[in-house]
Amino acid sequence: MGLPYAADCLVGSPRVVLLPMRAEQLRGHLDALLLAALEDGPRHGYAVIEALRRSTGGRLDLPTGTIYPALRRLEQAGLITGSWSVVAGRQRREYRLTPAGKRALSGKRADWRDFATMVSAALEGKPWPSPA
Amino acid sequence: MAEPRLIGGYLSELSAQLPAPIVAELADGLDQTYQHYLDQGLGPDAATRAALAEFGEPHIIVAAFTRASPARRAARRLLMTGPIVGACWAAALTVNRAWAWPVPGAARILLGTALITAIGLLAAAAFGKHYRPAGRAAAAGCVGMAALDAAMLIAATLAAPAVIWPVMAAATASLVRITFTTRTLHSVLTG
Description:
The structure holds 2 protein chains of 2 kinds.
Chain A: E1 21-22, H1 23-26, H2 30-37, E2 43-44, H3 45-55, E3 60-61, H4 67-76, E4 80-87, E5 90-97, H5 99-124
Parallel strand pairs in A: 1-3
Antiparallel strand pairs in A: 2-5, 4-5
Chain B: H1 5-15, H2 20-39, H3 44-55, H4 58-67, H5 70-95, H6 105-127, H7 131-159, H8 165-190
């Protein structure tokens, strides 16, 4: 049985539950998450997924098979580069950030901070922080 | 360790639709997912089911790879830039009164049919959900577009009464597209 969805949590259950982060919520942010997962060094696909799980507290709710095409797309865009090795008789593809990928990650982080600050200000009634 | 039968079947389904290097990468990831569930204490059957459920349905994975494929990207770029190249040639042909050129009617019909076919192939590649058919359609569309550009360049060279700037602009646009399709074709075919 999977984790309950938002609707399940709105009918009076007193338990604290972790809501799964679904594909539609991640749209537009998956590239940044994948780039961030590669920031500490090269990783193969499964290690990227594990890193994403850790960084999202296990709330990532994506078919993990779809992470691999996203990595290919980032590779075609020149943001990461892949190389093959053989581990325990299996071919394994490892990815690392390119300089363009590092720049893209910095940009996406800055965009996210702006976006999160704006939404927080709007939802919580906080004043928009004045520029330093 | 021998691969469970269900995982073998799952990979066979992917192999029928995706290139071998992609399937090799997925097989490695699926094997690690399976091992992860074994390490969590599940039995082989339960670990297999959990790994496959976590990976997702094959058709979802194939569709995701198709969306990210070089074929789809190339087809969409050609479809988006096509109207610009077409407008350049329309201007060049109009200014040069191309309807008066000594080009046989059959050649005109052939050119028009080839153009419609190439656009259709590129549209199939740009919006198709199946990896290999999209790749074949994109490759054929790229070759068709490059051949059409070459035909237009030859026709303009032989039949245009004067090389004026609209012809130069259209020829340049076609040369750029020939260069793009030639460079892209390799990644589309090996994608």
